[in-house]
Amino acid sequence: MPKKRTQKSFPFGRYLELAIAVAFVIVVLFVASLTIKVTQGVTRTVEAPRYLVRLQVLNGCGESGLASRMSDYLDSYADQDLQIRVVDTDDFDTRPVHRSFIISREEDRTAARLLARRLGLNEAEVIYKAIENNYRQVSATLVLGTDYEAVRLPQVSDKE
Fold it and tell me: Which of 4, 83, 94, 126 has the most CB atoms at less than 10 Å from its CB?
C-alpha cells in the first residue's frame, strides 16, 4: 500500500489572499470616494476684480531702476475693482517727463482711469494710444515723470 502524502497547510497562501482582498477593498473605497468628489464637486466662490490691468511701467525721469522698483510694488496689487499685473518695464523713449501720466492701450479707458485714481493721478488726463504688435497684451502704460514721488501707491488690503 502506497504511503499517503499529507499536505501541510502553509499559511502564506492565506495571508496573500487576505492581502489581495484588503487591497481590493481599499481600491473600491478610493474609487467610490473619487466618484463622489467628482460628481458633487467642491466649489468656492471667488470674487474677481472687475478690471484686470496688464501694466507697462516706463521710466520717464531718468532715475536709474525707478520703473523696476515701482513695478515690484504694483505687481499683483488687487482690490475688489482692480487687479494689476506688470508685464513690462522699460525707459520712456522721448524727452524727460515732468508729470507722471497713464496711456490707455484700449479704447475703453475705464480701467486706465480707475488705475489713475488709485495712483492719485488726474484720471481726466488719461490718453488713448494703441500699441502696434501688442504681443504682451498691455492694457495701460504708466509713465513715471520727475514728480514720481507724488504718485500715491495703493495699499494692499489683507483680506485673507
Answer: 126
CA 154 – CA 88 distance, rounded (Å) = 19
Q: pTM, whole model, 2 decimals?
A: 0.69
Evaluate if residue 7 carries a pLDDT over 60: no
Virtual torsion, Cα 31, 43, 79, 125, nearest 10 deg: 100
For the chain, what is the total number of helices (H) and then of strands (E)?
Answer: 3, 5
Paired strand residues for 144? 59
Band of pLDDT at residue 8, cut at 50, 70 and 90: low
The DSSP bridge pattern shows strands 140-144 and 51-59 to be parallel
Contact 141, 109 (CB under 8 A): no
User: For residues 103 and 116, what is the distance between their CA atoms, to the nearest angstrom?
Assistant: 10
Look-up of cell digits 522698483: 69
Q: What fold characterizes domain 51-150?
A: Alpha-Beta Plaits (3.30.70)
